Structures are given as structure tokens and as C-alpha cells.
Amino acid sequence: MSSLYVILTGMLVAGGCSIVGCFLVLRKMAMIGDAISHAVLPGIVIAFLISGSRDSVWMMFGAAVLGLLTVYLIQLFQQSGLQSDAAIGVVFTTLFAIGVLLVSVFASNVHLDMDHVLYGEIAYVPWNTLEIAGIDVGPRAVWITGAMFLINLLVVWGFFKQFKITSFDPALAASLGIPVVFFHYLLMSLVSLTTVASFESVGAILVVGMLVVPPLTAYLLTEKLSRMIVYSVGFGAISSVAGFYTASMLDASIAACMLCVSGVLLLVAFLFSPTHGVVWQKWLQQRGMVGEDSK
């Protein structure tokens, strides 16, 4: 049963990340997830200092607030003329440094496992359970990541047309009366919450891979957004299952193996995709040349 919970958590994390990750890839904002995952550290520390508790609700609230602040600051710097990559680098390194400073200054008060927050360990998921009215209802991470997956699914399904138009053509969206800024921050809010929800399972750094790799793999295989989201969630699920059994055989990090499998799937798509595959395109070119020579 414990292995089932680990695989399920991996699938839920990958699925939730994949849904919002598709829009990040389309908007060329893939590294925003990396920025948020580092910048939320001061929010986690401040939430603990204020509440005096390591309860996940407080941690998620503090991290979510810092995640939104990160997005706002990046947007502000971009509007001021700073390049996108430079704005992301300045904001997330500064906020992350502030978080590390807070941990250093209040080291005696902040009982925060940096390795757990940044790297995570999905193998411990089955033992961190949630109790409701004194009843053990299963691993906390399954409930949190499952809720986040459902929220992402419902929000994207409910506003699919708006997210699609604002991602491909913001000017057209504005002319149609769609509030572009609102949906931008709504998407960034989902990214922030998804990143934070994954802390207890795969960690802040590893979740970045799940935000980018499965969506990018799907992007190489289809030109249709709805199909891209379905493919991305599917690749995330495959990576979780295959990664778990790979880690069992190698006695290695489960989350790392999940991302490695996801990377292998991306490599296969990059080489053999019918539309973007390097090997496939070479083969078509050679076939075309042979056809011309035979004429």
C-alpha cells in the first residue's frame, strides 16, 4: 500500500504541474516555476515566525503570498525595460537570499529542514498522514496534491478559452474584452500554489522539472492545446510509475528517477516526433532526396 501512495502522489504532482506547465511553455515562461520555487522560502520562514507552527496550511499561505509577490515584481521589472530572464534572475535570487538570511538569523527558532523543502523525499509520504476528527484518512501529501490537481483541472477547464487566447494572442484577448492581466495572475497563482503543494512530496526544485518537461514533451507531439494538456498529464503519470520502479531497482532517489524518466521521454520526442523530431526530419529529407533521384 505504501508504494501505491508514493506512485499516486507522484502522478498527482506531475498531473497538477503539467496542466499549468503547458501554459508556461506556450507563454515562454518556463523558468517562472524555478523562480517561484526559490522565492517562496522567505514566505515559509515568515509564516512560521508569525504563527509559531509548521502546519502546512500556514506554510502554504506564506509561500503563496511570496509566489504572487515574485510574479508581480518580475512583471514590474519587465515593464520597466529589464529583460525577462534578467528580471527573473534578480527577483528570485534576492528573495531566496532573504529567505536564507532569515533562516540564519533565526536559526534557533526556525526548525526548517532545508533539504526537505528544496529536494523533498517522496518515499516518506505514506508516514505523514492526515487525521480528521481523530480518523486517519491517509497520507497528507495525497490529499494536498490531489486537491491542487483538481483545482488546476477545474479552473483550466472552466476558463480554457480565456487561457488559450491570452496565451497565444494577448492583444486579441484584450480586444475581445478578456481581462488579460487577471488571467495572467490567476495562472501565476495556480503555479505558486502547485509549487507549494509539492513541497512535502518532491520538493521545490524537483517540481520545476515536472512543470516543464512533460508539457514540453507534449508540445513536440501535437499542435492542439487540449491534446497537449492530455498528453502532458499522461507523460507525467508514465514518468511517476516508471520512475518509482526504476528507483526500486537502482535503490536511488524516487523523485529524481521520475524526472529522469520524464527526461528520457522528452529525448525520444525530440528525436522522433513526426513534426519536430530531429531524426524523423532527417529521415524524411533523405527519403525525399531518394525519391527525387529515382525520378
Automatic annotation (TrEMBL):
The chain crosses the membrane at residues 6-26, 31-50, 56-74, 86-107, 141-160, 172-196, 202-221, 228-247, 253-272. It is found in: Cell membrane. It comes from the Bacteria. Its main location: membrane. Pfam families: ABC-3. GO terms for cellular component: ATP-binding cassette (ABC) transporter complex. GO terms for biological process: response to zinc ion; transmembrane transport. InterPro entries: ABC_BtuC-like (IPR037294), ABC_TroCD (IPR001626). CDD domains: TM_ABC_iron-siderophores_like. Keywords: Cell membrane, Membrane, Transmembrane, Transmembrane helix, Transport. The keyword Nucleotidyltransferase does not apply. It is a multi-pass membrane protein. Belongs to the ABC-3 integral membrane protein family. This is Iron ABC transporter. The lineage of its organism: Bacteria, Bacillati, Bacillota, Bacilli, Bacillales.
